[in-house]
Amino acid sequence: MVAKLLQRRLLCTKAANHQHQQQQPWSRWSVKQVSKSNFSESLEELKNHIHNSDFIAVSSQKTGAFSSPWRRVLPFLDTPETAYLKSKDAAERFQVLQFVVCPFTLKPSTPTSNTKIIAHPYNFHLFPRDELNMGMPSYSFSCQTSYLTSMAREGFDFNVCIYDGISYLSRVQESIAKDRLENPSSAIYSVKSSSTPSVADAVFTERIKSRVQYWRDACKNKNKGSEEALIRSLRRLILGGEVYGSRPCMSIDVCNERQVQLVLKMLSEFFDDLIPLIIPDNGKGPKAVRVVLTSSAEDKNLLERELQDLEGEQNRKVRGFREVIDAISASQKPVIAYDCLNEFTFIHSKFLGPLPQSLNEFMCSLRLVFPHVLDVNNLLKEIGPLRKANNLPAALSYLKRQFFVPVDMEIPHQVQENEGKNYGHNVLRTAYLFAKLSSILKITHDTPHSVIDDLPSSKSYANIFNTCFTNLQEPIDGENILLDNVRKVNTEDLVFFWGFRGGMSAGELRNLLRGTHGVFSEEFEIQMVDKSCAVLAFWKPNLAEKLLEVMDSSGVGSDKVRELISEGLRAASYEIYKKVCQLGLWETDLADSFDKALAECPDDISAADSRKESSEIYWNSDLIKLDDL
Amino acid sequence: MNKQWLVRAFSKTLTLNLTSSTSYVRPFCSATNSTFAIKNVTKKNFDSALEDLKKHVRDADFVSVDLEMTGVTSAPWRESLDFDRFDVRYLKVKDSVEKFAVVQFGVCPFKWDSSKESFIAHPYNFYIFPRKELPFDGPAHEFLCQTTSIGFLAKYQFDFNACIHEGISYLSREQEAEALGRLNLAYEDELSNSAGHLKESRDSSSVRSADILFTWRMKNRFSEWRDSLLRNGGCQFEENSKDLTPQFQTVFYKMRPALKLNGFTSHQLRLIRLVTTKHFKELAFVRTNGENSSEQKLVVYTDSEDDRDMLMKEVRDDLHKEAELKVKAAAGFRHVIDLLSSEQKLVVGHNSFLDIAHIYSKFFGPLPSTVDEFVSCVHKNFRHIIDTKLLLNTDNVIQQLMRKKSTSLSSAFALLCPQIAFASESSALVRRPGVKVEVQVDDMRSSNWNSGAKHEAGYDAFMTGCVFAQACSHLGIDFKLHSLSSTGLAYHEKLQKYINLLYISWNNDAIIDLHTRNKTFGSSAHHNHKRRYPQILFPNIVLVWGFPSKFKPRDLKDCVTKVFGPDSVTSIYYLDETASFIQFSKKEFVSDFLELKETLDGKSDPISVLHPLSKLLEGGKTRAATYEVYKEICSSSISKKLFADQAEAVGIKCKNKVVELREGEPQGIENIEAPSSSSTEVEAGNLNSDSVNKNEIDKRSCDLKKDLSHRHLSGVELMDALYVTESQHEKRSKTSANA
User: Fold this and answer.
1) Are residue A37 and residue A165 in the same domain, yes or no?
2) Residues A476, A393: Cα–Cα separation, whole Å
3) Inter-chain CB proximity B147 and A600 less than 8 Å
4) What is the pLDDT of residues A152-163, one digit of tens each?
5) Which ipTM value was assigned to this complex?
6) A145, B140: Cβ pair inside 8 Å?
7) Segments forming the whole domain that contains residue A607
8) How far apart are CA A395 and CA A311, in angstroms?
9) Phi and psi, residue B629, nearest 5°
């Protein structure tokens, strides 16, 4: 190893030196840490940076990735659809504890300078605290023990997240909360010049007007004379007057939106010292308009500002961290992430709303919020379409070895006092990787959108998500670049096996099957999906179907197959695997999930067989080392 | 029980206020420092703490325990309800235990010191975390956190970093047995393989040319080395000695010359191993754990094939022993539980059914499917368990003393043990001569100990023990007279009425006897003041879910009584906003209702549309079933937040069963309550249990006011329920004022 490295250095001193220099001591960079206490100010800052940036990189730290080995997205097995269903399950199950946002600009290299990133990374600590006492944002969440352990090893501070994490509500949850909160909203409504008022409207307006007039005069007079307490309270009783803060107010009951409009119109036409507030009725529309009397124009301004602040505060309290997501969305800037499927299923489920049932719906829903999403992983494929780097550091070191693309990083943040507790550097890696890739692929910030649209990978939005990678939390040595050994295989040619003796390896299973039936004389390959279940790929069409027929008929015509079945061996098609994912039969062992799927809906499955949709996956015999599972 | 967190939230507020107000008052009655910290145990000091604890437990008269978990209920409707039968209640506890993790475990041995006429307590606070210490199946891959519970722990400064970074791991007995079994299997496999025919390397198919070159080179190296050994009679292999970390280094291993291999990749090592076995009869490839547990790879020279086999066996035995030790070490915190179990000490807990279930599932094995099996397994491991909450609620003397005050742990502690709770506050309180308790942590001792503002499992265990000691004295147990050493406290006649009785559900006073497995409904004083709710008859109950969201209990009642007559509905109980129980006055109505529902379903002819019941079926998602289906839904491992979603997720399977059950009379449904005695009444909406904290009451009364008929409505009781919340609220504020 050392020798290898030396050799490389000798061959290319310059590159090696550079590499050394570029050996980013990531923790050197200061990432601004944001928790409850400094959220408001940081949000304003970040909004500015977002406004001035070309791209926004995001990454997050979760409480887990997958609940059992087969439930992670398996590159050799999953179609985009099943990968989505698995990611959906994880996003619903686990919690985001940190969300890192990094708006950045790219200065392309000139003859005198390197490509330069100017980045503003912010690491938000999150906790789904129930701030409104409504059982939101989440009643409970799961933690993957090994995940937490490895986070702890990297020095993650759980106390900061749990004590001071920022809460949030998704967009859907916010509308539910608003319905339930019944907070008066200040009605700085634009008064619509709607249809001509009817007689009834005129009568209503006139009646309200005189009531308001009378009440207002009474209030103003009251201030002059000193009345007895009894009379004062009687007056209040009769007039229906209340107090809003220190100011007098009254409520006008309304029946519909139309009447609200009329009241508002009347108030703005005839009174300049009254401010209306609309009181909602349990989510069923307005219940009343509360009119607040101000003592002067100055006082009126004051109250208006107060109300605005109140609303802002209310919103901040309700939306919490989601304001950041809204700001990113509003900017319409391209969002960069590594492993987008994972990242964006979490974003959707936590900050937008419940995840839809299918990948397509998910894409549609997401596109409305984030029109430009770029998966760095996918860009990586553009350079070496058949090369794979299965985590961020590996991808970085791969690029380092293959290309000479110097990139400088600048972070204008001031150094914070909590140095050493710097988290969220993955977002910088992502931005850095993106910068390298973009200079290789000639993406510039001047025309990011059109260039991105020209990339073959981005032609269809759906392609952006590279479903074939998962960012594993397990330590993977940095040099783990795998040469490709991938082969396309149609899902129709796959057969799942389970029910064999525990602890069997793929090789043993292969030996067990070989010779039991004619189909096994053809070339086939076996991989373990988890310790309970294996998948077999035929390289010739129709063999899988034949095999499944034999298995279904309990081994008619083959005593050896019958023998295997009687010992418990079971088989299923890819369609049933899809069913398992669709129905959410997420058992610990895939074998149990298959058994459940077969027990639950045998009819469905035969029906599914008839309208089989086949798709292709990339079978890779090298990629998964089962010892690691 | 199910709202333990909330209880603690409340009780801890009480004590928190208390300590914060007393922190500046210097203790006058004792010269010793009373503010030393509790004994916190993490993996760093676990071994030494365990040794100390062993001694303390062995000497102890009883040991109190308390647990902190990451949550209690995985969905709102899984909270303990009044309509829970024993089996359903157990299923709910089982679900909770299987999903949540234990993060803190308090153990506090108490020993009577006759010379000082005082108890000596040794509180321990263990941080535990289900870390995976072994390469194969460990404790839990995943656990659930209830957001409110975590928030609650945070509120009391629970140190999550200590827990996750340094928490003690554990294996249950079953997991340990499995791990050892696996080891032995692997060991035997290797033995049989070692007979010469080594397993062919997996993929012998694709041999790369680079590999061939490497193999050749290694082969040459090894034969050179062997030859040099033979020539020089074991002298140094000089070649690479100039390098700082040579790839090959000659060392001695088990009295034999060996080459230590450095800096090879795992693939290269695999090739080396192949080379040695293929080409050298006298060389053995050995993996071993050297000093400071770093793995070493060696190629060892042996005199003969026999010698090689002997060496290999030795190595394997070493590795096997080492692995066994590792497994034993991975059992971690379970050693504490084993200690409690093997010493057969009296174990004391406060409302501890859930705690015991956690202990069972984390440290023994998966929970059995029925409560009877569970209880008998527990009894086998813990011969004597006493629950202080049950003791306080069932003994008349203590009840009088408590004056129907809350039996939550901290208020009971404040009430029964003022001499400990308010030790430093002194004069203001007229001191009742109580049982003295001296606390010892390491070398520090105090008779008026207060751990400070921290209220963790260890402190709660300490409070539980104090409450128990005081309660014993009220029962008339004289520690001075009693020769505890001879028979043990557990056999004291005055405790026999309470021993091994636990509240399976505190809400409805359901008690289980661990020894006889008898289930009874207690006659706790606090449940006797008013007969408010009708008796619950499970065969008369129908479960309805998925009805329109605007449907309120009153609507539901109207709708059903229009069909079955004004007296047909005994009570209505909402599980959550999507589901409700309807208890009919007659069993027949259940099947009638289900049948009628089935016939009306999906029909749109005028008669069906105008049928009074069709209002309930609006939206087409309304489902109905018997109580047995409720049990089945509870037993599922799925936990959706809303009951209707849960039923749908589980329902795929039991669609047919709904119909099945409708046809026959519901079978095997027995009302467990003894129908004769007056104590059979189950009080619904029992808000005066201590399982409701102030917030909760606020929220509930708020809910009730907003939507007067949200949960339980049976006619006039509506106002009663409101009354209960309000009066409780008052009482609650009073209690806190008192404290």
Assistant:
1) yes
2) 9
3) no
4) 888 888 999 999
5) 0.75
6) yes
7) 486-620
8) 46
9) -70, -35
